[in-house]
Amino acid sequence: MSDERPVHLRIPGPTPLPPEVRQAASGQMINHRGPEFRALLAEVTAGLQEVLATRHDVILLTASGTGGLEAAVVNTLSPGDRVLAVSIGYFGERFAAIAQAYGAEVVPLAFPWGAAADPDRVRQALRADPAIRAVLVTHNETSTGVANDLAALAAAVKEEGRLLLVDAISSAACLELRTDAWGLDVVVAGSQKGWLAPPGLAIVAISPAAWEAQARARMPRFYFDLRRAREAAQEGSTPWTPALSVCFALREGLRRLRAEGVEAVWARHRRVGRVTREGLQRLGLRLVPQDERTASDTVTAFWLPDGADAKAVLQRLRTDHGVVLAGGPGQLAGRILRIGHLGAVTEGDITPVLEALRAVLAPHVPAVR
Amino acid sequence: MSDERPVHLRIPGPTPLPPEVRQAASGQMINHRGPEFRALLAEVTAGLQEVLATRHDVILLTASGTGGLEAAVVNTLSPGDRVLAVSIGYFGERFAAIAQAYGAEVVPLAFPWGAAADPDRVRQALRADPAIRAVLVTHNETSTGVANDLAALAAAVKEEGRLLLVDAISSAACLELRTDAWGLDVVVAGSQKGWLAPPGLAIVAISPAAWEAQARARMPRFYFDLRRAREAAQEGSTPWTPALSVCFALREGLRRLRAEGVEAVWARHRRVGRVTREGLQRLGLRLVPQDERTASDTVTAFWLPDGADAKAVLQRLRTDHGVVLAGGPGQLAGRILRIGHLGAVTEGDITPVLEALRAVLAPHVPAVR
User: Fold this and answer.
1) pTM for the complete prediction?
2) φ and ψ at B146, to 5 degrees?
3) CATH classification number, A8-15+261-368, choose in 3.90.1150.10, 1.10.10.10, 1.25.40.10, 3.50.50.60
């Protein structure tokens, strides 16, 4: 790809970084046990709390988002605990696999890929099995571009008095998410999604009830022990050396998010999501979400038209148009493409994507010709 | 601290970054499943193999060094396995604590803080207890500034046919370290130490024998599963989104290390270590290592003179001289200070540190007045 032409990185994270964030990532190293880091951690934590709408603890872990999901599991559960794993796609299955790897008894509640989870079925499953201690839910399923109705799911789980662990990796700082008001116990996010920062930090919000569970949970943990992280945070540090460059970038990203305003950020993602879906439909392309009302506003998945080869299409988009999209994970590989529209994204960023798709897919879609 | 005055960050990592590395850390995001990342991972892996002197697998994990230690443990051991934990300080104890957290039966072999481990005692311990499967060793103990004779320790462990897991976090890319020639099974390093990069990546080298152990090991793991990481690496990627900015920086750091030459890097650290120790001794300060021949060439620990308060000294060094040093961890807190001299460091970088120490500690050391 030519260096001169702009690249449109439109995968569901990492997202393109604003210039000020890139500048921040190049900051010189500091003592991670000194006063500069203490000030940074205080500012970042306050920003994370504001965006996640929580007054409770938010912990930074040096890890990918998946490390944050592991932290959520191993800090709240014991081997043998029954866990309801609500899954609507690839990342829901991953969350369940983590719980399984650490010895939880996973009760799967899987919905078809492309559908959202039905809160009533979650409620029924919990009523039918009072031994279930915790529920795993994906807020926004990156593999299918479906957003769950997290408020309704949380209401069902809380009515039944169970712990709710939420994968909000591709939703936090993008979609409406109210940690305290909705009663979410653990919320996991990742720096490379809505936060305008590079990957490398997992963000974990923890409710008082989750801390109570933490004190009893017996799954083995060391690196991801949230109690150690909280103790260090209370002294303005982290138990292990943090990814400082990513912290610098995240601080800058949070400043920009707070300046825009959290509700405005949610509204912007709603607008961009709608523009993306409408554009694809005008091209005659079919969305993966079965019900458009459940379509995600951070990632749009669409079916490849008959005769279009995923690898060849991705390659041409990239080489001829500088547009970088993602393929499908797991069972959807080769059958769908995905457009990420989260982070520092506006409606205008979608235009070159739609133009490139029109050019590359035209031979395959009658409506486009 | 004034913004105009240079800061001398001389803690045992993170280390000051060269301008080209900072520039690299500000790179725009890329698709971590695309061709640019595939090329980056190939180049970085080749560089890591060269510096670690291994022809076998080297895996990148998005984590602090401690996450790499956890990966070493959980990928090679099963609950109940007997493990000899050779400890000469704070970080040796941490390695043992990780094994314990995951259910290993830890057989401690602790030497006094300030001493190095005796290879003969390691050999005896292994002969006395044939059920011990693996040995944990810290190459360079950052808390006391003592470097173990890793070649001799490895020879003892290999003679007895046990698995050897090495914490080389503050030695790799600084001190002589020959992974294959010495028969090291797992070697763990961290990007913020000798590698001229920011924190955020753990580096794990794995021998064929360690892979055999991996296939049988039953400690629970998901995020740190090295098999998943190897499978992804074979396709030019990582199982979870990697800390891209840190990868960009590490690539640049490795280019500089390889241009200098690994043996030249080791020799430079030896020179700087000697200059540091000689300078402290001229100031009348006493080193923590009991035998100077075991003193580390990446971090020097020295006893605070009577009447000197650690916090006040660190504060004055920082405020009046722009020199940032580290205090003592664990049982050494308040009693020692530590100078980090690893990464992009030369003899000249030690001069301002010694001058600042002379100025601040003069009232407490008769020889200095």
Assistant:
1) 0.97
2) -115, 130
3) 3.90.1150.10
